[in-house]
Amino acid sequence: MADSAAGRPTQARRRGRNGGPVVRRIGVPHESWRDVYHFLLTRSWGAFFGIVIALYLALNLIFALLYALQPGSVAGARPGSVLDDFFFSVETMATIGYGVMHPATLYAHWLVTFEALLGILFVPLATGLIIAKFTLPTARVLFSRNLVINPVDGVPTLMFRIANIRANQIVEAHVNLTLARTVTTREGARFRRLFDLTLQRHTNPQFALSWTVMHPIGPESPCAGLTEAAWRDDDIIILAVVTGLDATTSMTVHARHVYHGADVLSCHQFEDILSWHEAGEVHVDYRRFHATRAVTAAAS
User: Fold this and answer.
1) What's this model's pTM, rounded to 2 decimal places?
2) What is the rounded CA–CA span in Å between residue 139 and residue 286?
């Protein structure tokens, strides 16, 4: 689609939570109530529990105020004590029923009936959301901070490194690499274009340790002809997506990372992180995972 930012002066752009540009969605139909499930699942654990606790306390406070509207509706509560009415509401919603406080009027009985029904609905919903959030399939894939360009068999190759830092395997792992940049047509229109980057190997039958993903920059590559200065253009984005089956849960997992043109290091290569020891033991040194070193064209 057309790039609405076309024609603006080149400047450093803010990056979003996933590393991509900050996007403001304007004019989207407001359907928040239909999407509350997705909204809660995408919150952090702290925000999720904060919302659940705040909603729970708010509901009990509302019922406490409703009980307080009719003095004497809760037997055993101190006259005029909203705090006692609040704790009676908590006991009712949780179906605890200590017996010290109990409804004393028809008005209170109706409130208790409605609150007990609300509690029966609220607790399973909250529990279901916690279980759904806890069991969300995730992949713990570590992406190198930079991409490097270094000749491999005489061909300039764009490379980045990924590692499965979970103590299991991702079966039939697939990697897709996409270059996004703004291009100008012959008519002068500016469009955001996506270019798929062909990889030397895009699948891995059992992704357990580390994997160096390589894109040969041949004559047909979208990266062909990009100079070091061109890579520094903040308009260039490279999106890496990893998908596969978690060997433990047999569920599909995915991970993604957004690189910018400034993350590309020319004439660099990654430091080795694998070492072999006695009895066939392999050591993976993640302390050097992001480390690179400059190399000369002759040494490459």
Assistant:
1) 0.71
2) 17
